[in-house]
């Protein structure tokens, strides 16, 4: 199973870069028919994770993937599953 990984630790406080990185990874997954994207917002206060989930819940993004899974063992990790 092919998988992409996006670690947001480096750009956690740069809103414009976060949106661009998320758009880019979702677009790449769709274009390359990748099954799974792992997004790592980190544990922190949870604000970045909430921002990522809000991004993923936008209607134009939501239609691109199958489901979102929050890692039950690691609070700072989100999996986005695609069905092509």
When the domains are counted, the total is 1
Order of helices and strands: EHEHHEE
What fraction strand?
15-25%
Radius of gyration (CA) equals 12 Å
The helix-and-strand class reads alpha+beta
Number of strands: 4
Q: Give the class-level CATH name.
A: Alpha Beta
Q: Largest sheet at a glance?
A: 4 strands, mixed
Distance linking N and C termini: 13 Å
The residue-averaged pLDDT reads: 93
Biggest sheet strand order reads: 1-2-4-3
CATH topology annotation: Ribosomal Protein S8, Chain: A, domain 1
Shape from CA axes? Answer: globular
Q: How much helix, percentage-wise, in residues?
A: 25-40%
* Known CATH architecture: 2-Layer Sandwich
Low-confidence stretches: none
Question: What would the keywords be for this entry?
Answer:
single chain; 84 residues; Ribosomal Protein S8, Chain: A, domain 1; 4-stranded mixed sheet; globular
Quick overview of this protein structure:
With about 80 residues, this protein is of the alpha+beta class. The chain has helices at about 15-30, 45-55, 60, and strands at about 5, 35-40, 65-70, 80. It has a four-stranded mixed sheet, covered by helices on one side.
Give the helices and strands, then pairings.
Layout lengths: L2 E5 L7 H18 L3 E5 L6 H10 L2 H4 L4 E4 L7 E4 L3
What does this protein structure show overall?
With 84 residues, the chain is an alpha+beta fold. The chain has one domain (3-81): Ribosomal Protein S8, Chain: A, domain 1 (2-Layer Sandwich). The chain has 3 helices and 4 strands; from the N terminus they run βαβααββ. It has helices spanning 15-32, 47-56, 59-62, and strands spanning 3-7, 36-40, 67-70, 78-81. Strands 1-2-4-3 form a 4-stranded mixed beta sheet, covered by helices on one side. A hairpin with a 7-residue loop joins strand 3 and strand 4. The mean pLDDT is 93.
């Amino acid at each position: 199973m092919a998988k992409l990984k996006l670690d947001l630790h480096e750009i956690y406080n740069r809103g414009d870069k976060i949106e661009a990185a998320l758009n880019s990874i979702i677009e790449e997954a769709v274009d390359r028919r990748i099954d799974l994207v792992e997004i790592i917002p980190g544990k922190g206060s949870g604000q970045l994770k909430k921002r990522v989930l809000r991004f993923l819940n936008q209607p134009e993004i939501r239609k691109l993937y199958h489901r979102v899974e929050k890692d039950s063992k690691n609070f700072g990790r989100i999996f986005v599953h695609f069905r092509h």
